[in-house]
Each structure stands twice: as structure tokens, then as C-alpha cells.
Amino acid sequence: MNLLKPTFQHLAIVVLSGILLTNCGGSATKSNQLEEATTIKTDDIKQTRVFAAYHRNFYPEAVENDVVLAAGEKWQEGGSETSLTFYDAKSEQFANLRSLVKLNDKALPYGGSGSYYKSMPQAERVTYDVTDKKGKNFVLMLDPAPAVKILSVNGKPSYTKIHFDKDLTLKLANPRGTEDSYLRVSMLVTINEKSSFQTLGIFKSSDFITIPKDVLRHVGFNTTQDSPLFNIGDNWILVERLTSKDTIHQGISLRTLMHAMDARKIGIAKDTQNPILSTEVTGIVAKDMNYKFLANNALTTKPMHLGKRFVLAGFHVHGDVEKPSGAHQFPVFSDTQWQHYMAYMYGLTRKAMAKEYGIQFLPVTEVAAAKAYKQLVFSEDTNTPTKIRKNFSQGRELIAPYIPATVDFKKSWNDTPHEQLMAELNVDGLMFIDVELNAEKGGDFVLTPTVTVNIVGKGISAALPMVNYASGIIKTPSGREYNASILSKDSALSFITRSNHVISAIVKGMDHMAKQQEQQHYQDVWKLR
């Protein structure tokens, strides 16, 4: 089930929904329409899932980022906020639970989008007491996340200017028992004239964090944005602790998200280089088999050699095999020939990954038997004179997910099918191959392949639930001509579509990308995790 996963910045806005809605004059009608479209109504708490969040020590108003500006005078520096949000138990929608919700014995008003929230001047233990219209009761006690405090930046307890040609060192105060939690370190970046905190890195909790100079440029903002720039001059460092836990509480699915933060004003030198957004490599094998691989920066892209157990989660072949005029019809290949082609491609891929990276692939039968895989949508095969669509192994649909360049702090659960499948099979990642075939006329007819490869993997915490390994496209302007004698062979499609050249291009492209990533210190980012 693919549920909502807003970025941390969006999560902060949701948590402060009451503040923001107060400042959005004239938007009540639109808010009501959005509420109706995204929220179900229920009288039964057993028909819901519950998300409880607790945020402590909001950063100073002087930060003046997009969240502070949206909140306006409602922003409470050093304050805390807790919220309780109800979701429909069987869908992605919010749930407007018609009930009495109390926090520390005081009734809370409904804040929209399934949520109840309360701002407080300081963090303290709170107790929610919910009674629905059917008389069912739900009680939840929350303690705030352990605090984190910035003691110094580069050895300076007060304002200091940092240079990105030197390491960045933070001295922090962390309570005992927080060693297994993660800390996110961020700074202000301007994107489209708006400032927001963007990730410098995610680290195991420690009283001392050193971010090497070569790692600092792998900041986490979306590569689709225009001209992202570090805020030169005055800036802010933000350190956050986030812990997330999934349980069944009083018979109801519950996710808690505890969040603590601390910020320190700093300066950034004018000679600072702009961040590394992404890495791209291109090349050619076998004269005209072109490859292009693209990766986000190391914040969300993991070097390929760090993964060892993978599965082929999706292998799809599709295309139009007739010219638009209908004059040149490509021969219909048998189902056996299509399966032979995909099995051959998979075999070549598996051998290449084992040789180059020491990667082992689980048998496809284990993937097909997995509970998470069986929950996916069944896809019917098509094999006609004009259309082809084939899926390798059991014909289930699992398309490669989009992994954003920004870090997601999840606020909902059950996770994506990809995360469920990796957890169930205990693998490091999933590989997806998509082959688009088009019929062209040469001296005889040829099939020109366009092959897309995506490899994704498990993240390191709730702060980074999924990562990219590799994304690439292999394309050629020409297929391989054939004669009638080959059409009856099981290997016909592998020969015509130049399978060996395609796999060579994949291996060459990934090797090219690995060398480029090494030059840009991707491996150094991951050594810190």
C-alpha cells in the first residue's frame, strides 16, 4: 500500500496546521473542499489508524525560513507541539473521527485533516484520552523526544563563520540512552527565492559530529529546483533527533513520531562552492549502443558496492510492433520465445552483477512467493501482431519508485510495496528492468530496444527509508537485421534485440558512474553512516 510520505518541511507545515490556516485568510472554502476530498467520516475508532507526533524546541523566529514566515506571529520560539491524527484503517485518507478528544483532561477542537493539536511553551509528558461516539476509549501517553543541544560549531560556542573547504565539527549534548537514534544536520538553502532547511547529513547520535569538507557539498535539496544556493553570509545550523515507532496499541495501529531540534546561527564564507546536485555519465559500447546513468547526490544515492543481496522485482517488455501505416507487420513471436528472451536477459544481468559487485540475486521463485509481492496488481500479458507486453515471473506489477533528492520524514506507515518486499525477503535492494521495443524497417525488419534500469534499496532509518543505487537508460538507433531462418529459434529475440550489447552497456555505464561517484566522495558520505 503506497501511503503518504511528505518531506520534513511539509510535515512541519502539517504539524502547525492550525497556525498556518489562521494566516491563510480567504482560503476557508478551498480548505473545506480539500477536507471533503481527502477525509472520510467515522464514529468508530477501530476503523482508524492513529499517528501521534511530538515536536519540541522550535527554532528562533529569526531563522525566517518558509515555515516561520507562513506561521507569522503564531510561531513560538522554544515551544513544543503535539498532534494526534486519524487515518482510515484501509486507505490513504484522513479520518474525521466524531469523538471527544482530550489532552491532559482538556478537550481539543478538531483541526481538520483528521488532526487534533496543541502548542505548549515547553515539552512535558502528555496524555490523550479519546472517546468515540460508540463509547470506545483510546488512551495514549507520550513523552517528548530526548533533547539535543548544540554546544559549539567548529569549537566556537557562539557565532562563527564556516568555510566549505574545511571540515565542519559540531559538539552536542545528548542524554544517555540516545546512542541508537539518528540526528539530521541541516542548513538554510535558497530555492526559487525561498529559504528552507536542507539536509547536510544523517548520523548516528553522538556528542561530536564531524562532516568532512568533501561531504558538505552533498546537501539534500530537490534536483528539479532551479539555482539552489547556500545562503551566503548569515545562516543557521539545525540539528534534529527523530525517532519513530510502530505498534498495536489497544488494538489500533499506531505510529509515534518524536522530534527534538536545536538551531545555532552561523555565517558562511563567500568563497563557498555550490552544492553537488547530481552525477551524470554517458558513453557508447559496440559502436552505437548508448548509455546514460544519472544519480542524485550521495545523500540519497548509495554506492553500488555497498549492497550484496538483491532481487529482480520487475521486468517488463512492451512495445508497438507494427508501423503506424500498418504496412510493415513484425512477425508474432511465441510466448516461449518471449520468456526465453527475458530469462536470457536476466541471466546475463545476474552474472554481470555478481562479477562486477559480488551481488547475489534471490531466485525469482522466492520473490513470486513473497506475501508483499502477491499483494501487487496482476498484469495481463499481451502478444498480438501489433502489441506486445510481457512480464517476467508471475506477471505482477512493481514499478521502480521515484526516490526524491530530499530526505523524507515519514508520517504514515504500512510503507510502500518496495519497503515491504525488501523487509520480507531481507534484501538490500530491488532491481527493475523495462524494455521498450519498436519495429523498424531496414534491409529486413529489426527491433530497436530502449532499456531502462532502476535499482533502489533500503535506507538507514525513518529519516531515510529508501535510497537509490542506480538509474540508467540504454538506447540504440539500430537493431540487428535477421533472416527468416532465425524466427523459429528460442534465441531469436535475444539475437535481434542485441541483448549482449545491452548488458555490456549497463555494466559499462554503472562502472562509469561508480568511478565518477568515487571522485565526488559518495563513499565518504556513506562511511559516516
Rounded average pLDDT: 83
Determine the number of helices (DSSP H or I, runs of at least 4 residues): 11
Radius of gyration over all CA atoms, rounded: 26 Å
DSSP, total strands: 27
Helix content: 10-25%
Q: Can you summarize the main beta sheet?
A: 9 strands, mixed
Anisotropy-based shape: globular
**Straight-line distance between termini:** 29 Å
Q: What percentage of amino acids are in beta strands?
A: 35-45%
What are the segments in which pLDDT stays under 50 over at least 5 consecutive residues? 1-28, 222-226, 408-412
3D structure, described in words:
It is a single chain. This protein is an alpha+beta fold. It folds into three domains: 137 residues, no CATH class; 92 residues; 250 residues, no CATH class. 20% of the residues lie in helices and 39% in strands. The protein contains eleven helices and 27 strands. Strands 2, 3, 7, 11, 13, 14, 16, 17 and 18 form a nine-stranded mixed β-sheet that branches. Helix 5 links the parallel strand 21 and strand 22. It is globular. 39% of the residues are buried. The N terminus is likely disordered.
Topology readout:
Elements: H1 8-15, H2 17-22, H3 28-38, E1 39-42, E2 48-56, H4 66-71, E3 80-88, E4 94-97, E5 99-103, E6 106-107, E7 115-120, E8 126-132, E9 137-142, E10 149-153, E11 161-162, E12 168-173, E13 182-191, E14 194-204, E15 208-211, E16 229-230, E17 233-249, E18 252-268, E19 278-285, E20 289-296, E21 309-320, H5 335-357, E22 360-361, H6 364-369, H7 371-374, E23 382-383, E24 387-391, H8 417-425, E25 429-441, E26 445-461, E27 464-475, H9 492-496, H10 499-519, H11 522-527
Parallel strand pairs: 1-4, 2-18, 11-18, 21-22, 21-25
Antiparallel strand pairs: 2-3, 3-7, 5-6, 5-8, 8-9, 10-12, 12-15, 13-14, 13-16, 13-17, 17-18, 19-20, 20-27, 21-24, 23-24, 25-26, 26-27
Helix pairs in contact: 5-10
